Amino acid sequence: MSTNRELIQSMQNSGVLKTPQIIEAFEKIDRKYFVPEGFEEAIYRDAPLPIGEGQTISQPSTVAFMLELLQPRQGDSVLDIGSGSAWTTSLLCAIVGESGHVTGMERVERLVSIGQKNLSQFGFGQCHIEKAGKELGKPGEQFDKILVSASAPEIPFSLFEQLKPNGVLVIPVGNSIFKFKKLQDGRIQQEEYAGFVFVPLIYQEKQFH
To answer: Which of 12, 48, 134, 168 would be a feasible disulfide site paired with 204, CB 3.0-4.6 Å?
Structure first.
């Protein structure tokens, strides 16, 4: 595939990309703005690509699959953990619009700078990227949607506290992608989709006694 349109068409044909707002975001937020120099020929390949520091920009079909599970909506507040070069953060910003808000979090200092620069190209005033701390996410805050782009070794229960009622968390755990929905009464619904590979998520889980 040599163009963004061909990449999008391929993902629509395979059935992985189907929601109009998500398709529109892929049309607006071209992957070429987030891939390092030297990978020009692979920009629209459906494969992960290195972005430095041992991190990758995810495979487009995997990003589409996770966004379809997450179902971000206009006006949502979204936490994007493992923002990397800011492609997912920018896609989310395009979807939630001016009435929404996206916070991207990245633990690698150099990628924080790269991500901030990449994000700034689009003039999203309601979105920003910040350096991640030792704990996962933003303890004490709550979001409508949380997307995690690196694989946790186990289900990080601390993120459930950061979800609003009816909120959705999409996160890789091991080699599966999980969708968690927090019900009004605080119970968590879970769906699992196996067969994926991600870079590992590094954080310090809060200990409960």
So the answer is: 134
CATH superfamily assigned to domain 4-194 = Vaccinia Virus protein VP39 (3.40.50.150)
Domain ranges of the chain: 4-194
Give the model's pLDDT for residue 99.
97
Render 115-168 in DSSP notation, one character per residue.
HHHHHHTTT-TTEEEEE--SSSS-TT--EEEEEE-SBBSS--GGGGGGEEEEEE
Residue ranges for the chain with pLDDT beneath 50: 203-209
DSSP class of 207: P
Catalytic residue among 14, 58, 77, 83: 58
Known catalytic membership, residue 2: no
